[in-house]
Amino acid sequence: MNPVLPPIDDTKIWDIMLSDFKSQAISIALALEVFEGFDAPAGAEQLAKKLGYSLRGMKALLPMLKVQGLLDKHQGAYQLNNLSRTYMLKESPYYWGPFFIRRGEAIPNYKVILDNIRDGETEEARGPADSWESGQMDPALAKKVTDFMHCHSMPSAVGMTQTCDFSNVQSLLDVGGGSGCYASALANHYPEMKCTIMELAAVCDVAKGYIEKAGVSDRVDTKAVDMFREDWPEDYEAHFFSNIFHDWSPETCELLAQKSFDALAPGGRICLQEILLEESGDEPYAAVAFSFFMTQGNKGQQYTLKHLEYILEKAGFKDVSARRSYGYYSLVTGKKP
Length: 337
Ligand SMILES: C[S@@+](CC[C@H](N)C(=O)[O-])C[C@H]1O[C@@H](n2cnc3c(N)ncnc32)[C@H](O)[C@@H]1O
Hints:
By secondary structure, the protein is α/β, with parallel strands linked by helices. The chain folds into two domains: 11-119, Orthogonal Bundle (Arc Repressor Mutant, subunit A); 129-335, Rossmann fold (3-Layer(aba) Sandwich), CATH 3.40.50. It has helices at 11-31, 44-51, 55-67, 82-87, 97-105, 110-119, 129-134, 139-163, 181-189, 201-214, 250-263, 285-294, 305-315; strands spanning 71-74, 77-80, 171-175, 194-199, 220-224, 238-242, 269-274, 318-326, 329-335. The longest helix is centred in the middle third of the chain and has 25 residues, at 139-163. The radius of gyration is 21 Å and the shape is elongated. The mean pLDDT is 95. The structure holds S-adenosylmethionine. Residues 132, 135, 149, 153, 176-178, 199-200, 203, 226-228, 242-244, 247 line the site of S-adenosylmethionine (SAM).
């Protein structure tokens, strides 16, 4: 049986966790003299070119400044406002730079974060993404990362069973399913459903413990498959991805969508559980900050519905739609005709 739905949703916990990035983004912008770069309104592309910084970095950083009220945006171009002109520019007598920069420097991996925003991805300390990309993960890291993901996904896994209808799905492949909290919550909710967690081998070993605890070992199993290098099993009615697309570049997401499309039978469904960015790219804070976080250890970003729709349709999926599933999360679905 699933645990009862949390009596209060987890958005406040996400807000607290993601609040870490508020002053971090400001200290990075000040250290990189981003505010000084605005002698005229500019989009991320223009500013990246002008300052010689990575486009991905500026696309992650500028929304963090906008959402905190330090930049305005008109017709796609960011610009300084009264607040940033007063406190973020070196020539102002009210400049806060030394304070924020000093606080930033106290963060243990500050140099990596700063280098990633300025130069794009760097070689140093890329966290688990190196193992994900190589398809090789050692057991200690697998345990650490899987426990880390499990707690942020567990409420939305149980929550999603109340808001999204999987009653037509008898067999589901949870791609990069981590601890299996989604597969286990679905199996608990739908007594006929069988699920497989497709994961790196070391993560499968960790997931088995979680599945047993959830009491669904008879209907949820694991399959060690490197999703990039190996063939996907073919006999599932639905493919479920939670927080997978946000780990990867648009090009890699296109490849994953294509692998899914090819492995599904006609009529099969793809389901993406993600925190969606609004079309402006600057709201809501949770998506903007999660996207900023993605620059610190992997190649991903939070996506807009339109962008995911484009990726899924390019692979051949039809009828792409989204609905809010739990907390900040939405479930995006598409169908293989
Ligand atoms: C951000 S976590 C998401 C975990 C889970 N879906 C959730 O939402 O809690 C990404 C997952 O993708 C898995 N993964 C990454 N690269 C993979 C690969 N090459 N093959 C299979 N799984 C992979 C990781 O092991 C990890 O559990």
